[in-house]
From TrEMBL:
<dbReference type="GO" id="GO:0004807">
    <property type="term" value="F:triose-phosphate isomerase activity"/>
</dbReference>
<dbReference type="GO" id="GO:0019563">
    <property type="term" value="P:glycerol catabolic process"/>
</dbReference>
<comment type="subunit">
    <text>Homodimer.</text>
</comment>
<dbReference type="InterPro" id="IPR013785">
    <property type="entry name" value="Aldolase_TIM"/>
</dbReference>
<keyword id="KW-0413">Isomerase</keyword>
<keyword id="KW-0324">Glycolysis</keyword>
<keyword id="KW-0963">Cytoplasm</keyword>
<feature type="binding site">
    <location>
        <begin position="225"/>
        <end position="226"/>
    </location>
    <ligand>
        <name>substrate</name>
    </ligand>
</feature>
<comment type="pathway">
    <text>Carbohydrate biosynthesis; gluconeogenesis.</text>
</comment>
<feature type="active site" description="Proton acceptor">
    <location>
        <position position="164"/>
    </location>
</feature>
<comment type="similarity">
    <text>Belongs to the triosephosphate isomerase family.</text>
</comment>
<dbReference type="InterPro" id="IPR035990">
    <property type="entry name" value="TIM_sf"/>
</dbReference>
<dbReference type="GO" id="GO:0006096">
    <property type="term" value="P:glycolytic process"/>
</dbReference>
<dbReference type="InterPro" id="IPR022896">
    <property type="entry name" value="TrioseP_Isoase_bac/euk"/>
</dbReference>
<dbReference type="Pfam" id="PF00121">
    <property type="entry name" value="TIM"/>
</dbReference>
<feature type="binding site">
    <location>
        <position position="204"/>
    </location>
    <ligand>
        <name>substrate</name>
    </ligand>
</feature>
<comment type="function">
    <text>Involved in the gluconeogenesis. Catalyzes stereospecifically the conversion of dihydroxyacetone phosphate (DHAP) to D-glyceraldehyde-3-phosphate (G3P).</text>
</comment>
Amino acid sequence: MTRQTLIAGNWKMHGLTEALGFFGAIAPIAAKSPATVLVCPPATLLQQAARACDGTVVRVGGQDCHAAPSGAHTGDISAAMLRDAGATHVILGHSERRADHGERDADIRAKAEAALAAGLVPVICVGETLSEREAGREVEIVAGQLAGSLPENAASVDLVIAYEPVWAIGTGLTASVADVASMHAAIRERLPNPATSCILYGGSVKPDNAAELLGLADVDGALVGGASLNASDFTAIIEAASRKRE
Ligand code: PEP
């Protein structure tokens, strides 16, 4: 069985209306790629981004959602609202959410269940800090995050997990190819559907390192932050992913 290849862009808190031209620039490259191409802009651009992608293969997603379907949660966005705006996926448990908003594994599990209930694919992020890696605890940390944050019905859905070592996000540092390979294998063996689950690598993926990382057997794609803000960098990463299936 072939697992999907997914290249996902995370724009974080970047992008005004003028950034929407990005979608027209990447759509022809995405159309030629066997990889699924997803871009997660800020929530303010989601509906316009979805419209810009209408009739193309490019999908759009949210960067977070609330666990409740609706209610008195000022400033929050539900999974159904993301879906209504045109999202197909939602990033959950990004290390910046864990750090800036104190999100714990149980919160991420609840959000993942809400996302699935609303018809969204959750992209669940896990990853160790530098001190945890230096202490040799990276597998223990990631295994704990998986055990705590996978949805209750994880065995009956095809999961997307993003392994993002915290120290590699936005720093220009990437984990070594050997470290990525062994962590992805460790993650896969802990998933209820290892054969069909999609495991992304994230952490300073750029055009010049994408082919090597995406060439690894257990790496099914990438979650890309900084390089997803630039159409030529992002399309170069999509093209590197296309070569994975050649
Ligand atoms: C991310 O935002 O998930 C990420 C991996 O960022 P960057 O590619 O900039 O390291």
